Amino acid sequence: MSSSGKVSMETIVDATLKGVATAWKKYYEITGEWLRTAPEYYLTSKIFESLGKADVWVTLEENMDNNITYSNSCRPGRYPRRLTRNKKCDLSIWWKNGTLRGIIEVKVLRNSNYEPLKKDVHRICDLLKLREDSTVQFGMVVVYTDRCSGKTKSSRERVEEIIDNVEKFIQETAKAKLGNPSFIKNSIIKTVRDEDSSWGAVACIIKR
Description:
39% of the residues lie in helices and 24% in strands. It has five helices and six strands; from the N terminus they run H-H-E-H-E-E-H-E-H-E-E.
């Protein structure tokens, strides 16, 4: 069991992106295919492994009922539908005392439609808003994408544009829900040698 309370949020972001890079490298070595062809769960599992190596206490696919219970977020009345007990998040981060520190949602973006990211950002914001005295410190959205070169832009330029748009989308969506949250983010972009393609990922923490 790791003690993620000693690990900074910046380190969590960096370990997450390292996990994405490892996922891409391993999948490409074995299959010769882009990571977009892999099941999303494969990427999540490599992020899980990378966070564990960084001494982060992390679990896979916790249901939201557990996350609420172990974060001092229980309250009377109905919960937002994105937090109902049959819903799960991809990864949960825990404090060393066994309470919830944050949740992570992972997405593989195979086109330029950012709307699927909205429900993940809303789930994070809904959890952060449940109770002011909850143990939840943050939520993070991780997005991977890849592109080949187009008619007017290189593959790297296309990926850079998407990563920039994703960052803006996440921040604008969170601000609409939370008012004035803070963000900790980083990104990685790589061009594939001997191929007319690039891939990239962004990890964006939403902190109340």
